[in-house]
Amino acid sequence: MDANQRRSIDESYKLLFSEPRMIADLLVGYVKQEWVDKLDFSSLESLPTDFITECLDKRHGDCIWRVKWRDSETYLYVYVALEFQSKPDRFMPIRLMTYVSVLYERVAKQQDFKPHGKFPPVLPLVLYNGKQPWKYSTNLRDLIDIIPGGIEQYIPEFEFFLIEERKFKNHPLLPTRNLVSALFALETSANEEKLFNAFKALKVWLEQEGQKSLNKAFLAWMKGVLLPSKWEHIDMSDVSDLEGVQSMLEVTVEQWKKEWKREGLAAGREEGIQLGKQEGRELGKQEGLAEGRAEGRAEGQRALFVQLIEAKFGALANDTMKTIEHANEEQLQNWTLKLLTANSIDEVFH
Fold first, then answer.
1. Can you tell me the distance from the alpha carbon of 106 to that of 109, in angstroms, rounded to the nearest whole number?
2. Where are any strands of DSSP class E within 74-175?
3. What are the CA-CA distances from residue 348 to residues 101, 174, 320, 335 (Å)?
4. 3-state SS, residue 87
């Protein structure tokens, strides 16, 4: 990947995380610490990052936000480092400490900063989507050789918060409407069908948000990053909205199913020839295998649906469980989509 491609990918991600809803969902859904509940997300404000670029290396993908605490005029700053590289960076604590230091210098020059006042807290956060596990420490002290005898008190304390996307692979979408959860589901989807299901959920959520900038950001990211990484041969130049993405995905998933069917039939015929089975028996076996695969998919979807609906509404009644047990694959898909916006169990099934 050349520098221009790398920059294009970084900027696509930055466009996504330049949306306040994405930052709020990131903190609420994946930081999950008590202080997050004390933030006033309506006050989220994006800050320029050009001063980081001027002083240090080019950080095309990083974002800086600040948000007020509830019932307060004081801020929390959030520095989001978007690390979309193939492998982790051992020296990330040093880099981030430097960026935060430059940020504090910037804050000190602001007109509203009091000469004898204290600096606001900064959350340094790294969002990493590489395939290799992040095996390095998030704490700066672990990079420094400490000699016993008192010198340790002069070693700087600095640690960043790491969100490693690969750890959320195959996780169900969060019961609440969380756009970062949908982003992770799309990026870590194991096959076309799972990607399509995650996209349908995302599309419903975005329609409910009604924010054109969010739609535009996700469209740019899907055209520029996600879909080319899955299918290099697909031409996205004529796709101008999420409806177009859905149509393209529907065709792609259908083609994938046909290829899978052809491969399955070919394997079944070869097995039949090798075993010397009669043609009629071979056909019956193929049909049985196809039915078994369909039942397996339905069982997996049924288990996921039960997990999601119980997470949102609590334990299910016996009658409801019986209804789910007798549902086919299409019904389960429809119920799963309704679950995203339902306020009661009745709204899911009616």
1. 5
2. 75-83, 122-128, 161-164
3. 50, 17, 11, 6
4. coil
CA distance 338 to 315: 18
Within the chain, residue ranges assigned H as helices are 3-16, 20-26, 50-55, 92-108, 179-187, 192-209, 212-221, 227-230, 242-275, 279-313, 318-325, 329-339, 345-349
Q: Could you tell me if residue 119 is inside a domain?
A: yes
Q: How far apart are CA 271 and CA 195, in angstroms?
A: 32
Amino acid in position 193: E
* Residue 46 φ then ψ, to 5°: -80, 140
pLDDT tens digits, one per residue of 63-84: 999 999 999 999 999 999 988 7
In a domain, 17, yes or no: yes
Q: Is residue 338 part of a domain?
A: no
| Residue pLDDT, tens place only, 276-334 | 556 545 555 555 455 555 665 677 777 777 878 887 887 788 788 888 888 888 888 88
Give the C-alpha separation, 239 to 216, whole Å: 12
For residue 343, the 8-state DSSP code is S
Listed in sequence order, the residues at least 6 apart from 76 whose beta carbon sits closer than 8 Å to its beta carbon are 39, 66, 67, 68, 69, 120, 121, 122, 123
> How, if at all, do strands 122-128 and 161-164 pair?
parallel
The parent domain of residue 102 ranges over 3-168
Does residue 287 sit within a domain?
no
Q: Which token pair is 109?
A: 């020059």
- DSSP letter string, 40-71: EEEEEEEE--HHHHHHSS--TT-EEEEEEETT
- Calculate ∠ Cα 31-37-39, nearest 5°: 95
